[in-house]
Write a structure and sequence with these properties.
With 340 residues, this protein is mainly beta. Helices cover 9% and strands 48% of the residues.
Length: 340
């Protein structure tokens, strides 16, 4: 009884939070100035799985039974049916590549663990300076990496809790410039008992500031200043996300239609609402849609997926998504899941 009282309090707070975020998600931004560009390590905010990218990254309350759950709501890892492997590739802007992978397995009926990594690689870029604005003839690259472990526990039949802990490193080896820190994600997942309605909450990228333990030369009107300056510390992209999920055909063996709505509160921009849905036919073919309500560039997303389990008796899935980022162009990504 005591445990249920605590869980009921948590659920009540989740409901109040999502009500506030959804109501505030349409804020025009006239009263609050967004803090765009005030955080770093933004590869942590790039959605690794094409499945959820196609659903507008409305994932907080989605019951993900795959290894990719570590990047979204790790509390749902307890619903793994078997050990699972995930691979993802994102073609980000300016030929930047973001890759990811995870492996998850059950530890008894009420626990699961996982291991995961994310990496960003800009490829070679042309070096330019004040003296050589058209290029010095040299090239450099920027790389980011996050490697971590996850654990999830089912506290009751309806409530589960998950945690990610990971090491973050980014910088440019060409300039001996490197920064590192640790990050923490906390999440919950709850079956409300009202038909298929679910609640979820995630706090992602909580941790200390990143800092380059080096100095740099600054310029004023193209003239070099006399003293070196230390690099300023910067936050990782802390995000609070809370959501609802509902399956309109929960008892239909041939059709599934899940709609998700999330309130998102990032530390470096305005609150927004992520809306997404997924239609699945015969556990084989999936079609997905999504949208952001209050984003500076992103608007509409979509995608599809195929699961070959019915044909080859092996849980293998392929997913693709495309996202419209306005003037920044479209983002295409692919992901593969493999159940062991």
């Amino acid at each position: 009884m005591m445990k249920m009282r605590y869980i009921n309090k948590i659920v009540g707070l989740l409901l109040l939070s999502i009500t506030f975020l959804v109501a505030d998600g349409g804020n025009s931004g006239t009263e609050i100035v967004p803090k765009s560009g005030t955080s770093g390590a933004h590869f942590l905010s790039i959605s690794p799985d094409a499945r959820f990218a196609g659903m507008g990254n409305a994932f907080a309350a989605y019951q993900n039974k795959k290894a990719s759950a570590v990047f979204y709501n790790p509390a749902t890892l307890v619903y793994l049916e078997n050990s699972d492997v995930f691979f993802g590739m994102v073609n980000w802007f300016a030929d930047v590549k973001v890759s990811s992978a995870s492996y998850a397995m059950r530890m008894g009926s009420d626990r699961a663990i996982a291991f995961h990594y994310r990496a960003l690689d800009t490829g070679d870029m042309k070096e330019t300076t004040i003296g050589f604005p058209n290029g010095t003839g040299k090239k450099f690259s920027w790389n980011s990496l996050a490697v971590g472990v996850s654990t999830a526990s089912r506290l009751t039949e309806k409530f589960s809790f998950g945690v990610n802990l990971y090491y973050i490193k980014e910088g440019s080896g060409d300039y001996n410039l490197e920064s590192s820190a640790w990050g923490l994600d906390i999440s919950t997942f709850y079956f409300t008992g009202f038909n298929s309605l679910k609640l979820g909450m995630t706090i992602r990228n909580f941790g200390p500031e990143l800092d380059f333990a080096e100095s740099h030369v600054d310029y004023s009107d193209g003239v070099e200043t006399t003293d070196d300056e230390d690099y300023r510390q910067y936050h990782i992209p802390l995000t609070f996300q809370i959501g609802l999920s509902y399956d309109f055909f929960e008892d239909n063996p041939q059709h599934s239609l899940t709609v998700n709505v999330d309130g998102v509160h990032p530390n470096d921009s305005l609150e927004r609402v992520n809306l997404g849905g997924e239609y699945i036919y015969m556990d084989f073919l999936s079609a997905r849609f999504g949208m952001y309500s209050n984003h500076d560039t992103a608007s509409i997303m979509g995608g599809f997926g195929v699961n070959l389990k019915s044909f080859i008796n092996q849980d293998v899935s392929f997913n693709y998504s495309v996202s419209n980022y306005g003037l920044l162009d479209y983002v295409h990504q692919f992901s593969i899941g493999y159940g062991l």
